[in-house]
Inverse folding.
C-alpha cells in the first residue's frame, strides 16, 4: 500500500519536474534578451532539477543512491546561483545592456529636476 | 515514467542547443552551454534509473563539477582576457 503511494508521489514529482524543465527550455529560446533568458534558465536549474531529483529519490529509497542524489541537489543548490551571478557580472562588465521598455533612471532624473524648475518658477 | 522524463529532457536539450547556435552574444552561448550541462546531468540520472543501474550517478556528479568549473573558467576568460587574472594583484599594482 505504502509502496503504491510512494510510486504515485514520485511519478507526480517526476512529471512536474519534466514540465518545469520544458518550460525553462522554451523560455531560453523565446525570451528577448540575455537577462530574461538567465531567468528562464534558472527555472530549469532550481524547480525542474529539484523536483526531478526528489522524484528519483523517492524511487531509490533509503540507500547510497539517495545520498548521491542529495549531493547532486546540493550541487545544483550552491553552484547554480554562483554560475548565474558570474554570468550576469561578466555580461554587465562587457556592456551587454538589458532590454528595457523604459529606463527608470531617466524618470528619477526628471523627478530630481522638477523641484528645481518649480522653485525657479516661484522665484519669477 | 522515466521514459517520459527522458524525452522531456531531450526536448529541452534540443531547445538549449538551438539557443547555443543562435545566441547573439557569447554570454548567451555560455548560458546555453551551462543549461546543456545541467540537462545532461539530469539525463544521466534518469537514464541510469531507466536501465536499472543508478550507478551512473557518479558520472553525473563528476560532470556537474566539471560543468561549473568550465563555465566559470570561460566567463573569467571573457571578463579579464586572462585565466590567471588575480583581483588582489591588480589592486596592488
Amino acid at each position: 500500500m505504502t509502496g503504491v503511494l510512494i510510486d504515485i508521489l514520485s511519478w507526480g514529482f517526476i512529471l512536474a519536474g519534466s514540465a518545469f524543465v520544458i518550460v525553462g527550455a522554451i523560455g531560453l529560446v523565446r525570451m528577448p534578451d540575455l537577462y530574461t533568458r538567465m531567468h528562464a534558465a534558472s527555472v530549469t536549474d532550481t524547480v525542474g532539477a529539484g523536483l526531478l531529483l526528489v522524484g528519483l529519490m523517492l524511487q531509490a529509497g533509503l540507500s547510497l543512491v539517495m545520498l548521491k542524489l542529495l549531493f547532486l541537489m546540493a550541487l545544483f543548490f550552491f553552484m547554480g546561483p554562483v554560475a548565474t551571478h558570474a554570468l550576469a557580472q561578466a555580461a554587465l562588465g562587457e556592456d551587454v545592456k538589458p532590454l528595457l521598455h523604459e529606463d527608470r533612471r531617466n524618470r528619477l532624473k526628471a523627478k530630481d529636476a522638477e523641484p528645481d524648475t518649480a522653485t525657479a518658477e516661484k522665484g519669477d | 515514467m522515466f521514459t517520459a522524463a527522458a524525452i522531456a529532457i531531450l526536448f529541452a536539450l534540443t531547445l538549449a542547443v538551438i539557443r547555443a547556435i543562435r545566441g547573439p552574444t557569447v554570454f548567451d552561448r555560455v548560458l546555453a552551454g551551462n543549461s546543456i550541462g545541467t540537462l545532461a546531468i539530469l539525463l544521466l540520472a534518469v537514464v541510469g534509473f531507466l536501465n536499472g543501474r543508478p550507478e551512473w550517478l557518479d558520472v553525473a556528479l563528476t560532470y556537474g563539477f566539471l560543468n561549473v568549473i568550465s563555465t566559470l573558467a570561460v566567463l573569467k576568460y571573457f571578463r579579464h582576457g586572462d585565466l590567471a587574472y588575480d583581483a588582489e594583484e591588480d589592486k596592488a599594482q
About this structure: The radius of gyration of chain B is 17 Å.
